[in-house]
Write a structure and sequence with these properties.
By secondary structure, the protein is an alpha+beta fold. The chain has a single domain (2-148), classed as Aminopeptidase (3-Layer(aba) Sandwich), CATH 3.40.630.30. It is built from four helices and seven strands. A seven-stranded mixed β-sheet has the order 1-2-3-4-5-7-6. Helix 1 crosses helix 2 (31-39). The longest helix has 15 residues, at 86-100. Bound molecules: coenzyme A (COA).
């Protein structure tokens, strides 16, 4: 049974395990980064976690920009927990919360090569807003996708 909840400082280690399975070391956020985000009294970064049978199976991190725009800076699921709807649950929870708080849009950047992520965002009707050439390195563009709430 998957439960979506706000992350607590005690989740930093488990979240960082998800992160290190999801992204190469040179770009992945570190355990220290997550400890800092989760203990920031101003709560500039918000993290939702998906807990499955007591373990952190995935997370979604976001910030609020320009008052009404939600920027998702990461969404990741442990490799052995993928294709079970966990990212779908995380995104649904975020969109529901953002709409209830009067946010106007949700946006994110995704590599043009990341097929599972494109399938995920496509199902939520995110649309292409911009293309950032070579953002992830030579010939690896980023797409900026946006969902108007
Ligand atoms: C992209 C990522 C977050 C998707 O996570 P996920 O939990 O596997 O995603 P979901 O399970 O919600 O959706 C994936 C598939 O599972 C299917 N699915 C959804 N609910 C399901 C359920 N209850 N049971 C079985 N399958 C289900 C979906 O249909 C989808 O299949 P499709 O893509 O063939 O249509 C994951 O692959 C990941 O962590 N990648 C590395 C990090 C990354 O690239 N993040 C994106 C940065 S922009």
């Amino acid at each position: 049974m998957v439960k979506i909840r706000s992350a607590l400082p005690v989740d930093a280690q488990e979240i960082s395990k998800v992160e290190s399975e999801a992204h190469p070391q040179e770009v992945a956020a570190t355990l220290e980064d997550f400890r800092e985000y989760l203990s920031d009294p101003q709560k500039r970064q918000t993290i939702l976690v998906a807990e499955n049978d007591g373990i952190v199976a995935g997370f979604l991190g976001y910030t609020i920009q320009e008052k009404y725009r939600v920027y998702i800076w990461d969404i990741a699921v442990r490799q052995n927990q993928r294709s079970r709807g966990i990212a779908t649950n995380l995104l649904t929870a975020l969109i529901t919360k953002a709409a209830a708080q009067g946010m106007r849009s949700v946006f994110l950047k995704v590599s043009d090569e990341n097929i599972p992520a494109h399938r995920l965002y496509g199902r939520f009707n995110f649309v292409l807003k911009d293309q950032l050439k070579d953002y992830y390195g030579h010939s690896r563009d980023a797409f900026v996708l946006e969902l108007i709430l």
